[in-house]
Amino acid sequence: MSSTETARMSASAPQPGLGRKLVDIAIEYNFVLIFLVVVAIAASLSDSFLTFGNVANLFQQAAVVGVVAVGMTFVILTGNIDLSVGSVVALCGMLVAVLLSAGYPPFVAVALTALVGLSCGAAMGAISALAQVPSFIVTLAGLVSFRGITYLLTDGVPVSGLPQGFAAISSTMVPILPGFALTSMALIFIVLCIVAGIVLRFTVFGEYVYATGGNPEAARLSGLPTRLIVTSVFAISGLMAALGGILLTSRLRIGQPTAAQGLELDAIAAVVLGGTSLFGGRGSVLGTFFAVMLLQVLRNIFNLLGLGSFYQMTITGLIIIAAILLNRFIDHRKGRG
Q1: H helix intervals, the chain
Q2: What is the mean pLDDT of residues 36-58?
Q3: Does the reported pTM lie above 0.85?
Q4: Which domain holds residue 264?
Q5: CATH of the domain at 142
Q6: Residue 174's pLDDT band (boundaries 50, 70, 90)?
Q7: At residue 10, does pLDDT exceed 70?
Q8: What are the CA-CA distances from residue 281 to residues 78, 80, 92, 230 (Å)?
C-alpha cells in the first residue's frame, strides 16, 4: 500500500468528536474538576471561605503535607511507595531542634538535617533497589525505626526554646497581591511544586522516572540505570520529608517527637487523588498540588460541618480507595491496564 493511500485512509477514518474529546479531558484532569466543585461547596457553606486571609491560611496549613507529597510523587511514579515519610518528618523536626538547642547556627542545623533526611531516603531506596526488596516492606521498617530514633534523641521529651530567627523560615509574610500575602512556608511549597514539575516534564531525569515506572524491565533493557533512579527518587522523598520536618518545627517553635503521625497517609492520598498511578509511569506534580489543596479544603468543610477527627480519617481512607479505582478506570480506558 502506498503512502498516499495510507494517508487517504487515515484522513477518512472517523475522528473522535468534540464531545468525546471533552469527556477524555474531563476524565484525565478529574482532580481539577473535583477541586473546583469542592471549592464551590465550601464557598456556599461559608462566606469567609474565599477571603484572602482564609486562602492564605489554607496554603499554610497544606504546606507541610504538600512538600512531603511532592517527594512522594517521584517515588510513586516509579511504581514504589514510601511509608516512612511521617517518621522522617518527625525525626528531622526533632533533629533540627536538638541542633539549634546545642548552639548550632540555623543555616548549619538546617543543612545537616536536610542531609540526614536525604540519607534516610537514599538508604531505603538503595536497599529496595539493590536487594530487590519491595519498597512497601523496606519503608514500613523505616516508619518504625525512624520513629524510634526520634524518641531516642531526647528520650521522648519535646525540645523548646528555639531561636526566634528560626521561626522566620515558616512565618515570614511575603506580599503577593495588594492585600494578599502568603507565609514563606506556603511559598516554599508552591515553588517546590513548580521546580519538581519542570524536572519531571523537561529533563532527562524526569523521562527516566516515567520510563522506570511505566515498564521497569523495558527501561532496564534499554540501558537506563533503573536502580540508581529508584534510589534517587527515594533520596528526593527523604529530602522533602526533612524539609517538611524543618518547616513544621519552625512553625510550631518546638521539636515534638509525636509529630506527623499518619502524615504518610495524607501524602499518599494526595498523590493518588491527583492522578498519579500507584502502578507507576503516569501522573504529575500539578495533580498532586491540586489534590493537596483539595484535602485541605475538605478538612475545612469537615470542620464547618462539625465532623470529628475519626470521621475525617474514615473519609480520607475512602477517598484513597475511590482515587485508586478511578485511576484504574483511566488506565483501562487508555489501554494501559
Answers
A1: 3-12, 18-28, 30-45, 52-77, 85-101, 106-130, 135-154, 164-171, 184-202, 204-214, 216-221, 226-252, 263-273, 285-305, 309-333
A2: 87
A3: yes
A4: 34-39+50-332
A5: 1.10.3470
A6: very high
A7: no
A8: 6, 11, 30, 13
